[in-house]
Amino acid sequence: MSREQARQALERARRVAVATHITPDADAISSLIGLTQILRRLGKEAEPFCDDELPPRLRAIPHAEEISRVAHGSFDLLVSLDASDPARLGRAFAEVGEAPLLNIDHHITNTGFGTVNWVDPSAVATAEMVLWLADDLGVPLDRELASILLAGILGDTMGLRTPNVTPQVLREVIRLMEAGASLPTLVDVLFNRRSFAAIRLFGQALAGVRLEDGVIWTVVTREMRQTLGLGQANDLSLSSFLISAEEARIAAVFTERDDGKVEVSMRARPGYDVARVALAFGGGGHPPAAGCLVPGPLEEVIPPILSALKAAARDGRTDPSG
Ligand code: 5GP
Ligand code: MN
Ligand code: MN
C-alpha cells in the first residue's frame, strides 16, 4: 500500500504529466481528467495524455477535449493511471525526459513498473483511488469533479452491478451525488448510447456466436466494421452481454483492428478467472473482466486463446478468495 507515498509524490511535484491506457474506457478517462483537475486545483501544472482515440460517449466527460496523445517536454513527475503494464500507455510517455513514474492502478495483474507503485485491487475503479487522493490532498469535491469521478466508478462497476460493490462504494457514490454528480445522466451517457451502426454490428457478431465447453465467443472482423462505417474506438460491451448466457462460464470477443492486431475482450462468471488467461497472452485485467492485444491474424490467434479459455472454464479458480 503506497497511498501515502503517492500523496507525497503528488504534493511535491510542480509539473506533472498524467497518462492512461490505450483503448480507453470510462475509468481511464475519468481517473485521467479527475487527477489532472485535482492537481490544477492545487496550483500545479498538469497535462492529461491518452495515446488513442476516445469512443464518442467518453467525449461527453468534462475536459475530455484537453487530452493530448503524446507528452513532450520535461516534467518532474509522470503518473500512470488504470494501466497494468507500460505497453498499455502506448507512446504517451515515449518522448518525455527522465522523471519518476507514479503508477496508480487497481488491476491485480499490474506489473509494478513505476518508481512508486500504488496498486489496490480492492478498489472498484482507479477513479475511486483518485477520489481517495482528493480527500488525502484536501481538495474538496464540486459538481464537476464529482461527475468526472462518478463516471469511472460507474464504468468499471457496470452501473454499480458488479460483485465488488460494497456499502463503502455506495457511500462514496452518495457523496459524489451530494456534491452534484447526476447518477441518471451518467448512466444514460455511459450505458444507453449506441449508434445504429453499432447495433447492427452487434447483430452481425451475435449471428456468428458459438458455445463450446462453457465458452461463449464470437468475432468482429475489420470488414464487418468497415462495411458499417465503424472505427475501432467503438467498445460494444459485447462480451458483457455474452456472459449473461446461462450455459456459459466464460465469454470472449475477438475484434480485428485496422492494423490487423486482434483485441480480445474476456469475461468470467464468479469463480472463474480470465485475468490469468489474459496475462498469459501479454494482457491483463481483473478475474471477471480482462483483455489482451495480440498480433493477428484472427485464424491464428483464436485457437490457442480459445483452448486456454476452455481450460479456465473447466477448472474454475483454485483460489476461492479472489
Ligand atoms: P474490456 O474487455 O472491457 O475491454 O476490458 C476488461 C478489462 O481488461 C479492463 O480492466 C481492461 O483494463 C483490461 N484489458 C483489456 N484489454 C487489455 C490489454 O490489452 N492489456 C491489458 N493489460 N489489460 C487489458
Ligand atoms: Mn480501464
Ligand atoms: Mn479500471
TrEMBL record:
Gene3D superfamilies: 3.10.310.30, inorganic pyrophosphatase (n-terminal core) (3.90.1640.10). Residues 15-153 form the DDH domain. Residues 242-313 form the DHHA1 domain. GO terms for molecular function: nucleic acid binding. Pfam families: DHH, DHHA1. InterPro entries: DDH_dom, DHH_sf, DHHA1_dom, Oligoribo/pAp-PDE_c-di-AMP_PDE. This is Phosphoesterase RecJ domain-containing protein. It comes from Thermoflexus hugenholtzii JAD2. The lineage of its organism: Bacteria, Bacillati, Chloroflexota, Thermoflexia, Thermoflexales.
